């Protein structure tokens, strides 16, 4: 699950409205990555985008609206989960993409995470986007079950995916530690071993919640 906020979607031809949106969203990404949420202003975005600030205010109204549209645009990216032939390989590739998105400087992914704490609109949009990405990545677990890598009983795909990817965010965002080139594979392997042992079976989680 490459961080859904690190690249902009393919720009579709669509006249002036589409061009203005592309210019503005690119400007938001640049301003946010360089200056953070605190430095993001409607005027700064308009200037960088080369459009009149009245246009920006009329369409997006405020900074929250700009952030929501950037996140929504990320959902338009034509991205597919990795398919390496094994669950361990898929999760490792997924983690490598996440790590790359978090360590690039400046990191738009980290900037948007921070911004979501200041904007309820952005927080809701980001929650929707991540929910969609996790749902999209459930195919990794489905393929693993079909290959016989996971127990026959139903596996809670989202719990497995969270367990596999969480160490990257803990290490790089919470602890702000230097990237470990071995962490993507190590975290993937740990999650696969736990899943193979039934740690994420739907039945087990149902029993634990009773």
UniProtKB/TrEMBL annotation:
Matching SUPFAM superfamilies: Homeodomain-like, Tetracyclin repressor-like, C-terminal domain
Coiled coil: none
Keyword Transcription regulation part of the UniProt annotation: yes
Molecular function terms, GO-annotated: DNA-binding transcription factor activity; transcription cis-regulatory region binding
Transmembrane segments: none
Domain of life: Bacteria
DNA-binding interval(s): 41-60
Keyword Cell cycle on entry: no
PROSITE patterns assigned: HTH_TETR_2
Signal sequence annotation: none
Pfam families, A to Z: TetR_C_11, TetR_N
All residue ranges annotated as the HTH tetR-type domain in the record: 18-78
Keyword tags: DNA-binding, Transcription, Transcription regulation
Protein name as it appears in the record: TetR family transcriptional regulator
Organism: Streptomyces minutiscleroticus
